[in-house]
Amino acid sequence: MRLGSRSSNDFIQILNKKNEIIQQSFLANIVELNKSISIKVMLGDATITEQKTFDPELINTFYQKIIKNLKEWSIQEVSISNNDDLRRIFTKFEIREGNYLISGHLSLQYHVLLYYKPEQQVIQLQKELSDIIDLTKNKEKQMSDNSDQFVLNKLKDKGYNDFDHQKLFEIFYENDEFREKIYKEIEQDIEVDFQDLSNKKTLLIKQLDNLLMETYQTSSVLIDDNRLITGEEGCLCTFDIEFIRNKTKEGLFDPRKISESVKEDIVKRLEEFSELLKM
């Protein structure tokens, strides 16, 4: 049973009120921790601009402080999911009271935006990469525009003068080793090493990747599981009560059958958690 769900039962209504207090306190903490700061970043066109971001490590520290004080609870350590530009930092915890399991889930979902560090090296690397791309494109076009003549000239240089064009190309394409040798000689003639250019391009891209920086964007609003799954930004704070029957969890149960002592223990656990959010 998810706390916050409508119920006519007096005990569940009490729990719902406790849950609402916890959620609002949790949200107040998230709002404070998610305050944005402005930093300078570089766009792909080398423009320097300012971008808003927050520090997810503050959320991690906040979670760690909470679970550190959940002495008797079973804890799932703070984790960060990573799905392209969408991330989620979360923790889960649970405790059993009688035949009832109380489980909690705290989560913050946010987007990651990538920019370049505002450094001159980025501009220099981009220029080198652009030059290599242009050179490769020009040389490839030169080879493409003159490929037939290039090949024929090379074949004739090697003594294939008495064959017609069809026969020459049959020889060329049936012999892989010979074909690769011809291509290599053509590359030398046009004074370009495509493999070397490719290696340089890969290295430059790697160097540019190392100059990327992450910024983080979220919304300080409470969301539910459905909105979390669909990728919305925001925070989640939920508590569930389940009945344990023969080691099986049951979300549907009759709260009227909960003993008074267990009811008191469940309320106490929620109140203790609520106090942790005020620390």
Explain how this protein is built.
β7 and β8 (248-250) form a beta hairpin. The longest helix is centred in the middle third of the chain and has 26 residues, at 120-145. Strands 3, 4, 5, 6, 7 and 8 form a 6-stranded antiparallel β-sheet that branches. The chain is elongated and about 105 Å long. The protein folds into 2 domains: 10-118 and 214-276, no CATH class; 120-209, no CATH class. 49% of the residues lie in helices and 26% in strands. It is of the alpha+beta class and 279 residues long. The mean pLDDT is 88. α3 (120-145) packs antiparallel against α7. It is built from 9 helices and 8 strands. The chain has helices spanning 10-33, 56-68, 120-145, 147-157, 165-174, 176-189, 194-209, 225-229, 260-276; strands at residues 37-42, 48-53, 74-83, 86-97, 100-116, 212-217, 234-245, 248-250.
**How does the major sheet shape up?**
6 strands, antiparallel
SSE pattern, N- to C-terminal: HEEHEEEHHHHHEHEEH
Low-pLDDT segments: none
Count up the domains: 2
Overall 3D form: elongated
Short characterization:
The two termini are 28 Å apart. This protein has helices at 10-33, 56-68, 120-145, 147-157, 165-174, 176-189, 194-209, 225-229, 260-276; strands at residues 37-42, 48-53, 74-83, 86-97, 100-116, 212-217, 234-245, 248-250. Strands 3, 4, 5, 6, 7 and 8 form a 6-stranded antiparallel sheet that branches. Strands 1-2 form a two-stranded antiparallel ribbon.
